Amino acid sequence: MEPQPGRPVAEEDVARAWGALRRGSLLRTQEGERIEVWFSGLRNPGAGPDFRRAVFRSERGRVVRGDVEVHLAATGWDAHGHGDDPRYRNVVLHVVARDDRLTPVLRPGGGRAPALVIGALTNTLTAGGPLDPCGAPGAGSAARGLLETVRRLGGRRFNAKVRWWRGRVAGLGPDAALFMGLVAALGHGEDRAPFQQVAAALPWPALGSALALAPPHERVAAAETWLLGTAGLLGPAAPSPPSLPSLGARWAALGAAPALAAEHWPRGGRRPNAAPWRRLAGLGALAARWSAAGGPAEALQRAVEGVVPGRWVARLRAHFRVDAAAAGVRGPALIGNGAADGLAVNVALPLLGALAALSGDAASERRVEAAYAAYPGLEPDAVVRRLGAALELSPFRLGACLQQGLHQLHRGYCQRGRQAACPCCRPGRDQDRAGRFRP
Asked: pTM score > 0.85 for this model?
Protein backbone atom coordinates (compact mmCIF):
# COMPACT_ATOMS: atom_id res chain seq x y z
CA MET A 1 0.00 0.00 0.00
CA GLU A 2 1.21 3.50 -0.82
CA PRO A 3 2.39 5.51 2.19
CA GLN A 4 -0.33 8.08 2.83
CA PRO A 5 0.31 11.74 3.70
CA GLY A 6 0.63 12.07 7.43
CA ARG A 7 1.27 8.35 7.96
CA PRO A 8 4.78 7.46 9.14
CA VAL A 9 6.82 5.27 6.84
CA ALA A 10 6.73 1.65 7.99
CA GLU A 11 9.38 -1.00 7.49
CA GLU A 12 7.08 -2.76 5.02
CA ASP A 13 7.06 0.43 2.91
CA VAL A 14 10.86 0.30 2.74
CA ALA A 15 10.77 -3.38 1.78
CA ARG A 16 8.18 -2.68 -0.93
CA ALA A 17 10.27 0.15 -2.31
CA TRP A 18 13.35 -2.05 -2.55
CA GLY A 19 11.40 -4.99 -3.98
CA ALA A 20 9.81 -2.80 -6.67
CA LEU A 21 13.15 -1.60 -8.08
CA ARG A 22 13.69 -2.44 -11.74
CA ARG A 23 16.84 -3.68 -13.34
CA GLY A 24 19.19 -0.77 -13.97
CA SER A 25 18.13 1.34 -11.00
CA LEU A 26 21.10 3.44 -9.86
CA LEU A 27 21.52 4.09 -6.14
CA ARG A 28 24.31 5.21 -3.84
CA THR A 29 25.33 3.63 -0.53
CA GLN A 30 26.09 5.70 2.55
CA GLU A 31 29.78 5.12 1.84
CA GLY A 32 29.35 6.98 -1.43
CA GLU A 33 29.59 3.99 -3.78
CA ARG A 34 27.11 3.93 -6.62
CA ILE A 35 25.46 0.60 -7.39
CA GLU A 36 23.33 -0.61 -10.27
CA VAL A 37 20.56 -3.00 -9.24
CA TRP A 38 20.29 -6.10 -11.41
CA PHE A 39 17.90 -8.09 -9.24
CA SER A 40 16.47 -6.96 -5.91
CA GLY A 41 16.07 -10.53 -4.68
CA LEU A 42 13.38 -12.95 -3.60
CA ARG A 43 11.22 -11.87 -0.67
CA ASN A 44 11.82 -14.17 2.27
CA PRO A 45 8.60 -14.92 4.19
CA GLY A 46 10.39 -16.76 6.98
CA ALA A 47 13.19 -16.15 9.44
CA GLY A 48 16.40 -14.56 8.21
CA PRO A 49 17.15 -11.72 5.77
CA ASP A 50 14.19 -10.00 4.10
CA PHE A 51 15.44 -10.66 0.54
CA ARG A 52 17.48 -13.57 -0.74
CA ARG A 53 19.88 -13.79 -3.68
CA ALA A 54 19.91 -10.14 -4.72
CA VAL A 55 22.39 -9.05 -7.42
CA PHE A 56 23.88 -5.62 -8.06
CA ARG A 57 26.98 -4.18 -9.70
CA SER A 58 29.24 -1.62 -8.11
CA GLU A 59 30.63 1.35 -10.00
CA ARG A 60 34.00 -0.43 -10.04
CA GLY A 61 32.42 -3.24 -12.06
CA ARG A 62 32.28 -5.79 -9.24
CA VAL A 63 29.17 -8.02 -9.34
CA VAL A 64 27.82 -8.62 -5.82
CA ARG A 65 25.40 -11.44 -4.97
CA GLY A 66 23.84 -12.02 -1.57
CA ASP A 67 21.03 -11.19 0.82
CA VAL A 68 19.46 -7.85 1.72
CA GLU A 69 18.15 -6.91 5.16
CA VAL A 70 15.62 -4.10 5.62
CA HIS A 71 15.07 -1.89 8.67
CA LEU A 72 13.47 1.45 9.36
CA ALA A 73 16.64 2.58 11.16
CA ALA A 74 20.13 1.19 10.72
CA THR A 75 20.43 0.52 14.46
CA GLY A 76 17.74 -2.13 14.02
CA TRP A 77 20.55 -4.47 12.96
CA ASP A 78 22.11 -4.32 16.44
CA ALA A 79 18.79 -4.21 18.27
CA HIS A 80 17.68 -7.44 16.61
CA GLY A 81 20.99 -9.23 17.21
CA HIS A 82 21.72 -9.90 13.54
CA GLY A 83 25.48 -9.51 14.07
CA ASP A 84 25.54 -12.77 16.03
CA ASP A 85 22.99 -14.68 13.95
CA PRO A 86 24.60 -16.92 11.28
CA ARG A 87 21.51 -16.61 9.09
CA TYR A 88 22.69 -13.08 8.25
CA ARG A 89 26.24 -13.95 7.24
CA ASN A 90 25.49 -13.45 3.53
CA VAL A 91 23.90 -10.01 3.82
CA VAL A 92 25.57 -7.67 1.32
CA LEU A 93 23.33 -4.60 1.67
CA HIS A 94 21.45 -3.03 4.57
CA VAL A 95 18.47 -1.08 3.21
CA VAL A 96 17.05 1.48 5.65
CA ALA A 97 14.78 4.51 5.79
CA ARG A 98 17.31 6.43 7.86
CA ASP A 99 20.92 5.79 8.82
CA ASP A 100 21.28 6.47 12.53
CA ARG A 101 24.31 4.21 12.78
CA LEU A 102 26.63 5.97 10.32
CA THR A 103 28.90 2.95 9.85
CA PRO A 104 28.40 -0.32 7.93
CA VAL A 105 27.04 -3.20 9.98
CA LEU A 106 29.30 -6.12 10.84
CA ARG A 107 28.17 -9.53 9.61
CA PRO A 108 28.50 -12.72 11.66
CA GLY A 109 31.70 -14.44 10.68
CA GLY A 110 33.29 -11.23 9.40
CA GLY A 111 32.79 -8.68 6.67
CA ARG A 112 30.64 -5.56 6.42
CA ALA A 113 27.36 -4.67 4.77
CA PRO A 114 26.98 -1.02 3.72
CA ALA A 115 23.79 0.90 4.37
CA LEU A 116 21.59 2.23 1.59
CA VAL A 117 19.01 4.83 2.53
CA ILE A 118 15.90 4.23 0.49
CA GLY A 119 13.29 6.00 2.60
CA ALA A 120 12.63 8.69 0.02
CA LEU A 121 11.80 6.08 -2.61
CA THR A 122 8.79 4.90 -0.63
CA ASN A 123 7.01 7.97 -1.93
CA THR A 124 7.35 6.69 -5.50
CA LEU A 125 5.15 3.67 -4.87
CA THR A 126 1.68 3.76 -6.31
CA ALA A 127 -1.28 2.04 -4.74
CA GLY A 128 -1.42 -1.52 -6.02
CA GLY A 129 1.80 -0.93 -7.95
CA PRO A 130 4.27 -3.66 -8.88
CA LEU A 131 6.10 -5.40 -6.09
CA ASP A 132 8.29 -7.44 -8.38
CA PRO A 133 11.40 -6.42 -10.35
CA CYS A 134 10.40 -8.60 -13.30
CA GLY A 135 9.58 -6.41 -16.28
CA ALA A 136 7.28 -8.91 -17.94
CA PRO A 137 3.60 -8.05 -18.27
CA GLY A 138 0.97 -10.75 -18.13
CA ALA A 139 0.93 -13.53 -20.64
CA GLY A 140 -2.42 -12.40 -22.02
CA SER A 141 -3.67 -14.15 -25.13
CA ALA A 142 -0.26 -15.69 -25.85
CA ALA A 143 -0.17 -17.71 -22.64
CA ARG A 144 0.19 -20.98 -24.51
CA GLY A 145 3.20 -19.69 -26.42
CA LEU A 146 4.70 -18.46 -23.19
CA LEU A 147 4.18 -21.87 -21.62
CA GLU A 148 5.96 -23.49 -24.55
CA THR A 149 8.92 -21.16 -24.08
CA VAL A 150 9.12 -22.01 -20.38
CA ARG A 151 8.76 -25.71 -21.18
CA ARG A 152 11.72 -25.55 -23.58
CA LEU A 153 13.75 -23.86 -20.88
CA GLY A 154 12.76 -26.66 -18.51
CA GLY A 155 14.04 -29.19 -21.05
CA ARG A 156 17.27 -27.25 -21.39
CA ARG A 157 17.75 -27.26 -17.62
CA PHE A 158 17.12 -31.01 -17.47
CA ASN A 159 19.64 -31.70 -20.25
CA ALA A 160 22.23 -29.64 -18.40
CA LYS A 161 21.62 -31.68 -15.24
CA VAL A 162 21.99 -34.92 -17.19
CA ARG A 163 25.35 -33.74 -18.55
CA TRP A 164 26.46 -32.79 -15.03
CA TRP A 165 25.44 -36.18 -13.65
CA ARG A 166 27.30 -37.95 -16.44
CA GLY A 167 30.48 -36.37 -15.16
CA ARG A 168 29.69 -37.29 -11.56
CA VAL A 169 28.89 -40.90 -12.43
CA ALA A 170 32.04 -41.21 -14.52
CA GLY A 171 34.15 -39.86 -11.67
CA LEU A 172 32.55 -41.46 -8.61
CA GLY A 173 30.55 -44.39 -9.89
CA PRO A 174 26.74 -44.54 -9.92
CA ASP A 175 26.20 -45.56 -6.28
CA ALA A 176 28.48 -42.94 -4.74
CA ALA A 177 27.22 -40.21 -7.08
CA LEU A 178 23.56 -40.95 -6.39
CA PHE A 179 24.00 -41.19 -2.62
CA MET A 180 25.96 -37.94 -2.42
CA GLY A 181 23.33 -36.19 -4.52
CA LEU A 182 20.47 -37.46 -2.38
CA VAL A 183 22.10 -36.43 0.90
CA ALA A 184 22.81 -32.95 -0.46
CA ALA A 185 19.28 -32.61 -1.86
CA LEU A 186 17.72 -33.32 1.53
CA GLY A 187 19.31 -30.14 2.85
CA HIS A 188 17.60 -26.85 2.16
CA GLY A 189 17.76 -23.32 3.44
CA GLU A 190 20.10 -22.81 6.36
CA ASP A 191 20.99 -26.49 6.69
CA ARG A 192 21.97 -26.98 3.05
CA ALA A 193 25.69 -26.59 3.79
CA PRO A 194 25.76 -29.06 6.72
CA PHE A 195 23.98 -31.69 4.63
CA GLN A 196 26.56 -31.22 1.88
CA GLN A 197 29.31 -31.71 4.46
CA VAL A 198 27.71 -34.95 5.63
CA ALA A 199 27.53 -36.11 2.01
CA ALA A 200 31.24 -35.47 1.56
CA ALA A 201 32.27 -37.01 4.91
CA LEU A 202 30.23 -40.23 4.59
CA PRO A 203 30.29 -41.48 0.98
CA TRP A 204 28.34 -44.56 -0.02
CA PRO A 205 31.30 -46.97 -0.23
CA ALA A 206 32.02 -46.35 3.46
CA LEU A 207 28.40 -46.48 4.61
CA GLY A 208 27.57 -49.42 2.34
CA SER A 209 30.50 -51.45 3.71
CA ALA A 210 29.45 -50.71 7.29
CA LEU A 211 25.86 -51.77 6.61
CA ALA A 212 26.99 -54.98 4.93
CA LEU A 213 28.58 -56.02 8.24
CA ALA A 214 25.42 -55.37 10.26
CA PRO A 215 22.72 -58.02 10.74
CA PRO A 216 19.73 -57.32 8.46
CA HIS A 217 17.43 -56.46 11.39
CA GLU A 218 19.92 -53.84 12.66
CA ARG A 219 20.76 -52.12 9.38
CA VAL A 220 18.30 -49.26 9.82
CA ALA A 221 19.67 -48.41 13.27
CA ALA A 222 23.24 -48.79 11.98
CA ALA A 223 22.62 -46.42 9.07
CA GLU A 224 20.92 -43.86 11.33
CA THR A 225 23.81 -44.07 13.77
CA TRP A 226 26.42 -43.44 11.10
CA LEU A 227 24.51 -40.55 9.51
CA LEU A 228 23.48 -38.76 12.71
CA GLY A 229 26.83 -39.40 14.37
CA THR A 230 28.80 -38.08 11.39
CA ALA A 231 26.52 -35.02 11.42
CA GLY A 232 27.43 -34.32 15.05
CA LEU A 233 23.87 -34.84 16.24
CA LEU A 234 24.60 -37.64 18.73
CA GLY A 235 27.32 -36.12 20.90
CA PRO A 236 27.05 -34.72 24.45
CA ALA A 237 26.26 -31.23 23.14
CA ALA A 238 23.53 -32.65 20.89
CA PRO A 239 21.55 -35.27 22.82
CA SER A 240 20.16 -38.18 20.88
CA PRO A 241 16.83 -37.41 19.23
CA PRO A 242 14.15 -38.26 21.80
CA SER A 243 12.64 -40.93 19.58
CA LEU A 244 16.02 -42.64 19.04
CA PRO A 245 17.61 -42.78 22.51
CA SER A 246 19.86 -45.77 21.81
CA LEU A 247 21.78 -44.22 18.93
CA GLY A 248 24.09 -42.16 21.15
CA ALA A 249 25.41 -45.28 22.84
CA ARG A 250 25.82 -47.00 19.47
CA TRP A 251 27.82 -44.06 18.14
CA ALA A 252 30.05 -43.92 21.22
CA ALA A 253 30.77 -47.64 20.84
CA LEU A 254 31.95 -47.11 17.25
CA GLY A 255 34.67 -44.73 18.42
CA ALA A 256 34.34 -42.64 15.26
CA ALA A 257 34.76 -38.88 15.10
CA PRO A 258 31.94 -36.65 13.84
CA ALA A 259 32.56 -34.49 10.80
CA LEU A 260 30.45 -31.64 12.18
CA ALA A 261 29.55 -30.25 15.59
CA ALA A 262 26.08 -29.47 16.90
CA GLU A 263 26.69 -25.74 16.48
CA HIS A 264 27.07 -26.16 12.72
CA TRP A 265 23.35 -26.85 12.49
CA PRO A 266 20.91 -23.91 12.56
CA ARG A 267 18.75 -23.69 15.63
CA GLY A 268 15.14 -22.62 15.54
CA GLY A 269 13.14 -21.46 12.56
CA ARG A 270 11.92 -24.97 11.67
CA ARG A 271 8.94 -27.03 12.70
CA PRO A 272 9.95 -29.97 14.93
CA ASN A 273 8.79 -32.42 12.26
CA ALA A 274 11.20 -30.82 9.77
CA ALA A 275 14.26 -31.11 12.03
CA PRO A 276 17.46 -32.20 10.25
CA TRP A 277 17.76 -35.37 12.33
CA ARG A 278 14.41 -36.58 11.00
CA ARG A 279 15.58 -36.25 7.38
CA LEU A 280 18.83 -38.02 8.19
CA ALA A 281 16.93 -40.79 9.96
CA GLY A 282 14.75 -41.15 6.88
CA LEU A 283 17.86 -41.39 4.73
CA GLY A 284 19.13 -44.10 7.06
CA ALA A 285 16.03 -46.18 6.40
CA LEU A 286 16.58 -45.70 2.66
CA ALA A 287 20.24 -46.68 2.97
CA ALA A 288 19.25 -49.90 4.72
CA ARG A 289 16.88 -50.73 1.84
CA TRP A 290 19.57 -50.03 -0.74
CA SER A 291 22.13 -52.14 1.11
CA ALA A 292 19.83 -55.13 0.72
CA ALA A 293 19.14 -54.37 -2.96
CA GLY A 294 22.63 -54.10 -4.41
CA GLY A 295 23.23 -50.38 -3.83
CA PRO A 296 21.40 -47.08 -4.44
CA ALA A 297 21.70 -47.00 -8.24
CA GLU A 298 20.62 -50.60 -8.81
CA ALA A 299 17.68 -50.19 -6.41
CA LEU A 300 16.56 -47.05 -8.25
CA GLN A 301 16.78 -48.68 -11.66
CA ARG A 302 14.77 -51.67 -10.42
CA ALA A 303 12.07 -49.34 -9.11
CA VAL A 304 11.17 -48.14 -12.61
CA GLU A 305 12.24 -51.20 -14.61
CA GLY A 306 9.56 -52.33 -17.05
CA VAL A 307 7.20 -49.52 -16.04
CA VAL A 308 5.70 -47.08 -18.55
CA PRO A 309 6.77 -43.44 -17.90
CA GLY A 310 3.28 -42.45 -16.81
CA ARG A 311 3.62 -44.79 -13.81
CA TRP A 312 7.02 -43.55 -12.71
CA VAL A 313 5.57 -40.95 -10.34
CA ALA A 314 3.96 -43.58 -8.14
CA ARG A 315 7.03 -45.83 -8.30
CA LEU A 316 9.50 -43.06 -7.42
CA ARG A 317 7.33 -41.76 -4.59
CA ALA A 318 7.12 -45.23 -3.12
CA HIS A 319 10.86 -45.68 -3.59
CA PHE A 320 11.86 -42.55 -1.66
CA ARG A 321 9.03 -42.24 0.85
CA VAL A 322 9.91 -43.24 4.42
CA ASP A 323 7.19 -43.49 7.04
CA ALA A 324 8.19 -42.82 10.62
CA ALA A 325 7.62 -46.40 11.70
CA ALA A 326 10.19 -47.65 9.18
CA ALA A 327 12.86 -45.71 11.07
CA GLY A 328 11.60 -46.56 14.54
CA VAL A 329 10.27 -43.08 15.38
CA ARG A 330 6.90 -41.47 15.88
CA GLY A 331 5.14 -38.75 13.97
CA PRO A 332 4.56 -38.02 10.29
CA ALA A 333 6.61 -39.41 7.45
CA LEU A 334 10.32 -38.66 7.64
CA ILE A 335 10.39 -38.33 3.85
CA GLY A 336 6.88 -37.64 2.60
CA ASN A 337 5.49 -37.53 -0.91
CA GLY A 338 6.55 -33.91 -1.44
CA ALA A 339 10.15 -34.54 -0.43
CA ALA A 340 10.16 -37.77 -2.46
CA ASP A 341 9.04 -35.84 -5.53
CA GLY A 342 11.85 -33.35 -4.99
CA LEU A 343 14.43 -36.15 -4.85
CA ALA A 344 12.94 -37.72 -7.97
CA VAL A 345 12.95 -34.55 -10.09
CA ASN A 346 16.22 -33.03 -8.92
CA VAL A 347 18.35 -36.16 -8.49
CA ALA A 348 16.85 -39.46 -9.63
CA LEU A 349 15.55 -38.55 -13.08
CA PRO A 350 18.69 -36.67 -14.22
CA LEU A 351 20.87 -39.48 -12.91
CA LEU A 352 18.79 -42.12 -14.70
CA GLY A 353 19.15 -40.03 -17.85
CA ALA A 354 22.90 -39.93 -17.34
CA LEU A 355 23.09 -43.71 -16.86
CA ALA A 356 21.07 -44.27 -20.03
CA ALA A 357 23.28 -41.88 -21.99
CA LEU A 358 26.49 -43.49 -20.73
CA SER A 359 25.24 -46.92 -21.74
CA GLY A 360 24.09 -45.67 -25.16
CA ASP A 361 20.50 -46.79 -24.46
CA ALA A 362 18.46 -44.34 -26.53
CA ALA A 363 15.15 -46.02 -25.64
CA SER A 364 15.83 -45.59 -21.93
CA GLU A 365 16.78 -41.95 -22.50
CA ARG A 366 13.42 -41.34 -24.15
CA ARG A 367 11.59 -43.02 -21.26
CA VAL A 368 13.38 -40.82 -18.73
CA GLU A 369 12.56 -37.69 -20.73
CA ALA A 370 8.91 -38.75 -21.01
CA ALA A 371 8.72 -39.35 -17.26
CA TYR A 372 10.23 -35.92 -16.59
CA ALA A 373 7.77 -34.23 -18.97
CA ALA A 374 4.84 -35.95 -17.23
CA TYR A 375 5.99 -35.40 -13.64
CA PRO A 376 3.61 -33.18 -11.63
CA GLY A 377 4.78 -29.96 -10.05
CA LEU A 378 6.60 -29.79 -6.74
CA GLU A 379 5.54 -27.57 -3.86
CA PRO A 380 6.08 -24.07 -5.35
CA ASP A 381 9.15 -22.32 -3.97
CA ALA A 382 9.93 -18.61 -3.97
CA VAL A 383 11.21 -18.60 -7.57
CA VAL A 384 8.16 -20.40 -8.96
CA ARG A 385 5.76 -18.22 -6.98
CA ARG A 386 7.45 -15.01 -8.06
CA LEU A 387 7.80 -15.73 -11.76
CA GLY A 388 4.49 -17.57 -11.96
CA ALA A 389 2.75 -14.44 -10.65
CA ALA A 390 4.84 -12.03 -12.76
CA LEU A 391 4.09 -13.94 -15.96
CA GLU A 392 0.46 -14.59 -14.96
CA LEU A 393 0.89 -18.34 -15.15
CA SER A 394 -0.97 -19.00 -11.89
CA PRO A 395 -4.16 -20.23 -13.65
CA PHE A 396 -2.17 -23.03 -15.29
CA ARG A 397 -1.11 -26.28 -13.70
CA LEU A 398 2.65 -26.08 -13.71
CA GLY A 399 4.31 -29.48 -13.89
CA ALA A 400 7.90 -30.14 -12.88
CA CYS A 401 9.25 -29.31 -16.34
CA LEU A 402 7.55 -25.89 -16.36
CA GLN A 403 8.72 -25.17 -12.82
CA GLN A 404 12.27 -26.04 -13.81
CA GLY A 405 11.89 -23.71 -16.77
CA LEU A 406 11.04 -20.87 -14.40
CA HIS A 407 14.17 -21.69 -12.42
CA GLN A 408 16.15 -21.53 -15.66
CA LEU A 409 14.69 -18.09 -16.34
CA HIS A 410 15.57 -16.93 -12.86
CA ARG A 411 19.13 -18.21 -12.93
CA GLY A 412 19.94 -17.38 -16.54
CA TYR A 413 18.31 -13.96 -16.76
CA CYS A 414 16.97 -12.47 -13.49
CA GLN A 415 20.02 -13.19 -11.36
CA ARG A 416 22.40 -12.11 -14.10
CA GLY A 417 20.65 -8.85 -14.83
CA ARG A 418 19.80 -10.00 -18.36
CA GLN A 419 16.12 -9.05 -18.41
CA ALA A 420 16.65 -7.26 -21.72
CA ALA A 421 17.55 -10.63 -23.29
CA CYS A 422 14.93 -12.66 -21.43
CA PRO A 423 12.73 -14.67 -23.83
CA CYS A 424 9.68 -13.75 -21.75
CA CYS A 425 10.14 -10.02 -21.16
CA ARG A 426 12.74 -8.66 -23.56
CA PRO A 427 12.00 -5.62 -25.77
CA GLY A 428 9.83 -6.59 -28.69
CA ARG A 429 7.81 -8.98 -26.57
CA ASP A 430 4.56 -7.71 -28.12
CA GLN A 431 5.63 -9.27 -31.40
CA ASP A 432 6.65 -12.41 -29.54
CA ARG A 433 3.12 -12.73 -28.26
CA ALA A 434 2.01 -13.60 -31.74
CA GLY A 435 3.71 -16.92 -31.19
CA ARG A 436 7.30 -16.31 -32.32
CA PHE A 437 8.95 -17.27 -29.07
CA ARG A 438 12.60 -18.17 -29.09
CA PRO A 439 14.35 -19.69 -26.06
From this structure: no
